[in-house]
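To whoever is covering the structure queue this week,

Two jobs came back overnight. Logging them here so there's a record in the thread.

Job A:
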Amino acid sequence: MKLSKLKIQNFRGIKTLELDLDSTTVLIGENNSGKTAILDALRLCLRDLGPRRGVVFDTFDFHLKDASADPSSADPIQITITFSEDEEGDWEAPLVGRFNRQRVLQVHADGRNHLVLRVTCAYNPTTRDFDQDWKFLDQAGHPLMAGPEALGTLQREISYYYLAALRDAARHFDAKGPFWRPFLKDSQLPEEKKVEIEQKLKDLNDLVIDSHTSFEQARDRLNNLQQIVPMASGEAVSIEAVPGRMFDMLAKAQIHLSTSTGAKVPVGRHGEGTQSLAVLMLFSAFLEAWPGGAPIVALEEPEAHLHPSAIRALWGILSMISGQKLISTHSGDLLSEIDIHNVRRLAKTQAGIESFRLPPGLLSDEEQRKFNYHVRRVRGELLFARCWLLVEGETESWVFPSAARASGIDLHRYGIEIVEYSQSDVGLLAKVANAFGIPWYCVMDDDSGRAKYEPGVMANLGSALEADRVTFPYPNAEIHLLTHGYDTVYAPLMPTQNLARVTKVIGTPGYWEEFACNLPSKAKTRGAAAVASEMERRGVTGVTAELAAILNKIVALAGGV
């Protein structure tokens, strides 16, 4: 069974959120953007909820409208979960039959089966407590007359597993660990083999005790207990150096991993990254051995504690985990390995938390290739940004970060990423940013190259005003910097023979335009780095009015003002 849609209302920081889900769905977004809330909402409704269990929600799960609100006055929590066939006939006949007997299955006009569960919780002023309810719904959203056994049937058909970001291997590989304990308890040994092993364990234990003579003194003294406390007849005191029963021996089983020197060390004593990977592998083994119903697997930050190169290799491990997967991540390296159509970006907007995705078919094959090469593979972190500043070339990529630092603006704090578009496709970048709900602002030279880039920008304004998406502040970056006091930085980089080709006289109109035109490409890139250093040295007085206006604009777009 595939979980196809989730709708959350009034749960924690989420007022209203609808989410379409794939076989693998990757959730990204800033802290407190709702990623954990989504995984927890599913846990509460698919695993913890029960016909006879108490309320699974607590007071902190209610969405509070403002600082003075409290859960008793909050709007009801409502979580609606939809399971759907991808194509007609996906679900096996016995499964369809079980749900039909419970009268909860709905068949849409396209022939696909759907099942919808809605869970609600609200404060009851009469009982002064919280009331919880659940219903299966028809296609119009009306409750169906389903008995309490219908929920049990659903929970037998699917199993929800949640692996949180804090993965302490010592806890997960403990005898009480939820994924390790089944391996310890599940003994497939024939009874005669079990008897044989336990006899050998007894023989080994006797050998250890007989070889360790100091044990004899302890046993003799402890036998004196019988003089005060009645004990069993026969041998009252025995020492167990080696567990004598299979159950006891398995309960003490530990996983050891070899170090680089070959020494075998318990997994809980290895580094955090190794522990995290070990827990993921244990989790995968558990799902393979004890799948229960169709597994829905929630993984929170699987990249935790891993080196970037290991993170990129991690996707191969995650893809082997069976079942439908929901993965939350903060890693651009992991994102670089994932099909971008599986990504859902959660962002705080004026309307609350919203979900954004790249719709299938939005990009042409060529645009998809460019995006994979220029963004997904090398700059996956761009999708985590609050705002993109699109700039034409290397000069702007040097100058804008320095102008921000000189102005006391921390671009990282505001979640602003600078993206160079001359080697990519500015229209493609704008299109992707729009799809993922990322505000963008494009700085474009007002020169002959404008005709090349401007159509792609204008075609992707969407509902935004042109003034909020594009600016043409100067003929080009070098001319702008030369005419605003940075000529002393570029002058030493101009070759004598190139300077001789400048026909105009310094101080006359057009001189700096001609000077910039004769600057070699290498001088422009070296000059950009030198200007960046000089601008930071000068501070805010070295930032031109045009650059300052652009910085203020992107800070505003990022939600900074």
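Job B:
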Amino acid sequence: MNFADRIVTYINPEAGMRRLAARKTMQVLNTGYSEGGAATNKNWARGWRWRGGSVKEDQEMSLSILRQRSRDLFMNSPIACAAINRRVVNVIGPGLRMRSTPDAEVLGLNPDEATAWARIREREFLLWAKSRECEVSGLDNYDETQQLAYLSWILNGDAIALLTMADPVDQPYELRIQLIEADRVCNPPGHERDPLFHDGVEVDQDGRVVAYHIRSNHPLAQTGGGNTSWARIPVRGEKSGRLNVLHLIARQRTGQYRGIPILAPVVASCKQLTRYSEAELTAAVISAFITVLIKSKTPDTAIGESFAPGMVTPSTNPADNSANPNEPFELPMGSASMVALNADEEAEMVNPNRPNAQFGAFMESVCKEIGAATDIPVELLTLKFTSTYTAARAALLEFWKRARMDRSAFNGDFNDPIAQEILEEGILKDRIQAPRYFDDWAIRDAWLASQWNGQAMGQMNPTDEVRAAKLRVDGGFSTHAKESIEISGIDFDDVIQEQTVERQRLKDAGIVVEKTSAKNK
């Protein structure tokens, strides 16, 4: 206790005790994060509105604005459109293809039998997937539906797909996919404050999702909305247990049931960058015109009186060629024109200093920030590969970590459940034989095993990368199947099958193809 504390305690013991308690509290607070990221009394922390809330306050209440602004940026901001398109092109590309890999050991099959069954399943799935009847509207085949589903997911934050049934048209399967835009999944009237409803997602007391509430029309529709109603769609059928709804979402917090658009952290940056770019472009266009200011020592004299009749064109009365000081006028200036000025007047050129020499560097800096937040290297975001080979390849490899994560999540939440529905429908229709499929979960999982392959990352130096792939296989660090997917995106079994056919055809035609071997240096 210092001297001041003793005096206060002597005069007012109660005040002295409060003073000592406050001092002890400050000693506890001034430790750990309270002196860093949790500080409240430092200059940098003043004015920071850092207080947050639950998922409902922090996310759900802002979702409508975030979705609308995200879509607006996708339509009107070049850099935001590029960020979305890069993800779609690299994660989904022309479509992800299923490769069936049944567990032969569990199923008691030899390798040839497992391969033959896998081919049957793949052909049956492709029979459904290549048809536009796989989707409710009849406009997209399965590859195009994958692209739209993933685009909707990252653009709106999440995507909802209903698994419906319809009579077969040009293929034998009844399964249909119906994509629902995120805005239509919303709380029905009377449930706005219900703790079991999260923007259209209904959960039980344990927090498990049990149903989705889908509005009959879009909440932002201006015309043609019709009468509004809500349909409650259970996640699974009450009797069959069949999956009715697929929900594509990347959760960031526990208790989160609706997704956030990937552009959410960079909405302000994208919008401001677009405005800045438009302003610079306008300034550059204006600078292409010659702008002249006339300085006059007799401002009371209308400038039009300085020119000969017929040179000045009134903007309000084309029939009058005189220079009326009370009317605006236009002075056309053609190429190589010469205009005589009065003795007390002089012309001064205006230089807007455009284009801005720092425009490109500033744009690139902001694009780096946007790319960092969306996991897209600036080289890929702007399609500007001017750095070294090593740097460009490192950037591409880092991006593909994100692409693989998204592809894995998309396969688990979208492709795998749909492929399971087609397999089970094929079994029930006796088009595919899978003994004991419905008898045991382990057996079912063994029949369902599959991989989804898409386009490869691409090579910046194909010769070296193919040589490296061969070394990995020869050293036992990888397989032919994995390297085939990584390099070309083509299944190794397809490569072997096609090469066998090609070699036989070349042999039948009497064409001898010499094999060459490259030595690794």
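Note for Job B: The mean pLDDT is 85.

Please reply-all if you pick these up so we don't duplicate work.
Q.
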